[in-house]
Amino acid sequence: MSSGIAFVNGRYVFKKEAMVNVEDRGYQFADGVYEVIAVSKSHLIDLDAHLDRLSRSLAELEISWPCKRRVLVLIFAKLLKRNNLKDGIIYLQISRGVANRNHAFPENTVRSSLVITVSKLGRPSEMKFKEGVKVVTMPENRWRRPDIKSISLLPNVLGKEYAHKNNSFETWFLDLDQTITEGSSTNAWIVLPKGELVTRELGTKILGGVTRARIIELARSAGILVTEKSFSLHDALFAEEAFITSTTSLVMPVIEIDGKMIGSGKPGPTAIKLLKLYEEFCSRGGRE
Ligand code: PLP
Hints:
The protein has helices at residues 25-29, 47-61, 69-82, 126-131, 154-165, 210-221, 233-237, 269-283; strands at 5-8, 11-14, 32-40, 43-44, 88-95, 113-119, 133-139, 170-174, 180-183, 187-191, 197-199, 226-228, 241-246, 250-257, 260-261. The chain is an alpha+beta fold. The strands form two sheets. Strands 7, 8, 9, 10, 11, 12, 13, 14 and 15 form a nine-stranded mixed sheet that branches. The longest helix has 15 residues, at 47-61. 39% of the residues are buried. Bound molecules: pyridoxal-5'-phosphate. The site of pyridoxal-5'-phosphate has 15 residues, from helix 6 and strand 13.
C-alpha cells in the first residue's frame, strides 16, 4: 500500500488528491525514467548507486534534472518523515515534462516533472525465500536499451503477467542467441557446477541492477568467484543453483525454470549465503 503523502512537482500532497497533467509526456509517451529505492530501518539502501543510475538514465535520454541531487535527498527524508515510514520503498519518476503532444522533444524551457511516492510494500514472504520460486522464459522482446531505467515497461509488464499466469514468480527474457538477458524486474544469476557464480555482463542488454552490483561486491569479499558473462538457458537448466536479485526481491532463490528442477530443487547454499550477507549489509545502513 502506498502511504498518504506524495511529492508532485514541488508540492507535498495527499496521494489520493495528487494529479498530473494529461499532457505530461510520461503519460503520453512513457517519456521518462524512474528509480525504486529500498528503505530499511529508516536507511536508504545504496542511495548513491540509485542516484548515479538515475543520473545516467536522465543523461542517456537528455532529460534534465528537475532539482539538485541533494534537494532530492532532502525531499526523500521529508516524505519518509511525513509518512512515518521506516521500512518500505521510495518510488521516484521523472518525465520530460508537460507539452502539447508532439513526438519530438519540446522546447528546453519545459521543466521535467517529478513525482515521488513512498510505500510500505513488504518484501516477499519468508516462505518464498525458504522454498524458492519458479521462473519461466519468453523471447526477449524489449527495445535495445533496457540498460536505461525507462518507465516504458510494457514488455516487462507482459512478462510478469506471463509468469503469474504460469504459476511462477518471474519471467526471464531469452535472447535470439538463447542466452538469458534478465528478468522482467530482476537480474538473473546461476551457479555453475564448479561453483562459479555467473551473471550477465553490463552493456545495453540488461539494467545495471543496484542489487546486482552490491551482490557482486559482497560475494567477492566472501571469496566467491564471480564472473560477469552471458549464460544460456541450457547453462541455467544444468546449473547447481539459480537466483534473482532486485531492490524488492533481494536475493530470491530459483528452484525451477520452465518446469525443470534446478540443482536439488531447493534454495542453494550460495543464494542463502548471499541473502544473509545482503540483509546484514542492509541492517548496517546499506552503504559502504
Ligand atoms: N532488471 C530490471 C528489468 C528491473 O526492472 C530491475 C528493477 O526494477 C532490476 C533488473 C533490478 O534492479 P535493482 O537491483 O536496482 O532493483
